[in-house]
Every structure is written in C-alpha cells, then in structure tokens.
Amino acid sequence: MGRRPSDPAARRRARPPRLSDGHPLVLPLGHVADFTTDPVVSATVQLRAAELAKELGGQWNYLTSCGPDATQTVFHLHGHLVPRRAGDGLALP
Asked: N or C end of the chain: which has fewer CB within 10 A?
C-alpha cells in the first residue's frame, strides 16, 4: 500500500498484539479527531483499510470509534483491521 499524491490516509502501522495478533492500523496523515470530523478523510482511511485487507487476504473486522462512550480512547481517527478466524474467541465491543 503506497502513498498516492494528495492522499490524506496512506499511513499504516503494525499494532502490538493488544486486541489480536497481526492487527494493523490505518491512519490519516494529518490530525482528524474521529470519523465524523472529516467524512472525506474518513472514507479514504476505510478505502485504504479495504485495500490492505485485500492485499493481506483473510477475514477481517474493520473498527473505528467516535467518543468515549463508543470505546474511543485515542482521539485521533484510526481504523483497526482485526484479523479473524473461526473460534478465535474475540468478543468485540
């Protein structure tokens, strides 16, 4: 997944296995508080997450949150790609 010119969401990073192993994040290049702040950036983050999931293969949950009552603990837009497999026992919020 490479950066495209004027692409606001081309950064990804591996996440320590807190939620699950192999759990990458997709983030915008600039600060966006949550997915309601800038719908175009939010859509681009989800597009990049979908491209990454297809590139990696497998089955995934895509998660993002907006506000503390919705389990947002980091107040910067980021999309979680959570790999799934049958019987993994992962309960999601």
From this structure: C
